[in-house]
Specification:
single chain; Ferritin; two-stranded antiparallel ribbon; about 70% helix; elongated; disordered N terminus; binds fe (ii) ion
Length: about 180
């Protein structure tokens, strides 16, 4: 395979994965691009997990829960969009054919528990990627990742709030507040 020399650190990458922007070769750290693709796989899984949970809640008549799950699903799609854009900008190839693990809960408490676990894993993964982006000196990617991390923090906060309400008011009373 043809190789091309990178400008910043002298390492070689396949020429076919390099992108030219206005005649200038854009290149990103291969480890960082790989990490962004792993984050992308988890975002693609999260979109699906949330949208299935949203539609299950709709089916049960819990309109408020449906809204929340759907809103988070759309936000995960925005994250995937940002990651794809950034991978392309860095000269990598976004991988959209591999999905992370999806866990579908058969009732509302299980849905919330699986979503909490996914958000906790996402927060850990974004924190690691932020450190890596800093190490390779890619502060623009780091800023994008910090923005996404803040959204994931918000998602976890929302899910913890729901779990606390279930614990405090019992499941049946909680569910009666979600009809609509
Ligand atoms: Fe996300
Ligand atoms: Fe999230």
């Amino acid at each position: 395979m043809d190789k091309v020399e990178l400008h910043n650190n002298g390492t070689m990458i396949p020429v076919e994965s390099a992108l030219y922007k206005g005649g200038i070769l854009m290149n990103g750290d291969p480890k960082l691009i790989e990490k962004l693709n792993k984050l992308l796989a988890d975002e693609l899984a999260a979109i699906n997990q949330y949208i299935v949970h949203a539609e299950m809640c709709e089916d049960w008549g819990y309109g408020k829960l449906h809204e929340g799950f759907e809103k988070r699903s759309i936000q995960e799609m925005r994250h995937a969009e940002k990651l794809i854009g950034r991978i392309l900008f860095l000269g990598g190839r976004p991988i959209v054919t591999s999905l992370g693990q999806i866990h579908i809960g058969e009732d509302v408490p299980k849905q919330i528990a699986y979503d909490r676990a996914a958000e906790e894993a996402a927060i850990k993964a974004y924190n690691e990627a932020i450190v890596l982006a800093g190490e390779v000196g890619d502060h623009a990617t780091r800023d994008i990742l910090i923005g996404i991390l803040n959204d994931e923090d918000g998602h976890l906060d929302e899910l913890e709030e729901l779990a606390d309400q279930i614990e405090q008011m019992s499941l049946s009373i909680f569910l009666s507040t979600q009809v609509g």
